[in-house]
Write a structure and sequence with these properties.
Layout: E1 3-4, H1 10-20, H2 25-36, H3 50-59, E2 60-61, E3 66-71, E4 78-83, E5 89-96, E6 109-112, E7 116-118, E8 133-136, H4 139-160, H5 170-176, E9 186-191, H6 201-212, E10 224-228, H7 232-239, E11 246-250, H8 256-262, H9 265-268, H10 271-285, E12 290-295, H11 306-315, E13 319-324, H12 338-350, E14 355-357, H13 371-382
Parallel strand pairs: 1-2, 6-9, 9-10, 10-11, 11-12, 12-13, 13-14
Antiparallel strand pairs: 3-4, 4-5, 5-6, 7-8
This protein binds S-adenosyl-L-homocysteine (SAH) and iron/sulfur cluster.
Iron/sulfur cluster binds near residues 128 and 229.
Length: about 375
């Protein structure tokens, strides 16, 4: 298997081009094709000499995510199911900053990306872990999610303008017509898709570096949020990375008793260890942590829980993001009534904690991660595939 071109940094490419005796400006041209114009084939890179393109093709792959399924429309939350080169499926979810309430187009978009195929952590409420863990995503497969979504967005805009040729599939079209440069659609990244990002640490950090670099994605590190179920040692490692990512902790329980019931990872890293790591992170980085708390009826939604939760949030100078549970087919959990959620957030606020209650965007299209993949894989299995 060839190394994929989108798993290399500029420095690595420069070393390779030097070894080949190619001038340095060719690297800049290549990077422009890859990240500004999202080229999907070597042939599209028309200002690179044919001999160089042949050498690149011989030594590197240029993998493009193939769209398997899509839900939602451009002015709402859109969910993309991608098929990888080995046939595995992953998801990315595109969320406009202001879903077009008044029919206007939103120019700011958050993309939620995956880091693994499946997940090994098996949180009881989550679709991503239901069928276990298959593999880590490579650097290029993390990076490609942004580019692939943007490629599709352009195709859709063109289709609306009636310019799309009916006989071409979108990817074929993208292969022939790379994007115009400087039209980044995604300006905010959340690593909250399928998988546990900190369990694929090295690939994640390298991918985020590429997405952050001015020659790559150009997305500010402060606009990248990494979410973890609580891998304490990796949180400490993240604290000493030079880049200023945002950190979100999937807490979902403010006591070991609650957390142990729904998150097996808590047996390995119980709250005192997780909170210790978060405290260190907060001290080193001086950045605010977000505590994610899914509200699940009868599990973690009693007002009693707001007291230890508020104590934790204050200790960590963290804000709390409450998310009413999104139903997963085949799992028994349900979200609490709206009044229960409102009371919960009010109790936290009364305790001087900054808390927000997310009124789900995209809940109607299975936006909670892992659900579209699970559904598709089960459908394929049932169809004998
Ligand atoms: N593995 C990482 C990142 C991916 S999960 C983590 O757990 O943080 C992204 C977020 O979605 C997590 O906070 C997760 O707990 C939450 N989540 C999973 N299933 C959900 C569901 N059915 N409804 C609402 N949120 C869910
Ligand atoms: Fe994995 Fe996160 Fe889902 Fe837990 S919540 S199973 S860690 S993806």
């Amino acid at each position: 298997m060839l190394t994929d071109i989108k798993s290399l940094t500029r420095e690595e490419l420069e070393a390779q081009f030097k070894a080949w005796g190619e001038p340095a400006y060719r690297v800049a041209q290549l990077l422009d094709w890859l990240y500004a114009r999202r080229a999907a084939s070597w042939e599209a890179m028309s200002n690179l000499p044919k001999t160089l393109r042949a050498k690149l093709a011989e030594n590197f792959s240029l993998q493009v995510l193939e769209l398997a399924r899509k839900q939602g429309s451009p002015d709402t939350t859109q969910k993309f199911l991608w098929q990888l080169a080995d046939g595995a499926f992953i998801e990315s979810v595109l969320i406009p900053a202001n879903p077009a309430l008044y029919g206007e187009a939103s120019d700011r978009h958050t993309l939620c990306i995956s880091t693994q195929v499946g997940c090994a952590y098996g949180c009881r409420f989550c679709a991503s872990g239901l069928d276990g863990w298959k593999r880590n995503l490579g650097v290029h497969e993390i990076v490609e999610q942004i580019l692939a979504v943007e490629r599709w967005n352009e195709i859709e805009i063109k289709a609306e303008g009636g310019k799309r040729k009916a006989e071409m599939s979108g990817v074929e079209e993208a292969r022939l017509q790379p994007s115009a440069p400087d039209s980044r659609l995604v300006d905010n990244l959340v690593v909250m898709g399928m998988g546990e990002p900190l369990a694929n640490y090295d690939n994640l950090i390298k991918a985020l570096k590429i997405l952050n670099a001015p020659w790559g994605g150009g997305i500010g590190a402060r606009r990248m949020t990494i979410s973890t179920s609580g891998l304490a040692p990796q949180i400490r490692k993240l604290a000493v990375e030079p880049m200023q990512f945002r950190l979100a902790i999937s807490l979902h329980g403010a006591t070991d008793e609650v957390r142990n019931r729904i998150m097996p990872v808590n047996k390995k890293y119980p709250l005192h260890e997780l909170v210790g790591a978060c405290e260190d992170y907060q001290k080193v980085k001086g950045r605010m942590i977000t505590l994610e708390y899914i509200l699940i009826a009868g599990i973690n939604d009693s007002l009693e829980q707001t007291r230890p939760l508020a104590a934790l949030a204050k200790r960590l100078y963290a804000k709390v993001n409450l998310i009413p549970y999104n139903k997963v087919e085949g799992l028994p959990w349900v979200r609490p009534a709206d009044e229960v959620c409102e009371r919960f957030v009010a109790a936290l606020e009364k305790n001087d904690v900054t808390a927000t209650l997310r009124r789900e965007k995209g809940g109607d299209i299975d936006a909670a991660c892992g659900q579209l993949r699970l559904k598709t894989e089960r459908e394929l299995k049932n169809a004998g595939g």
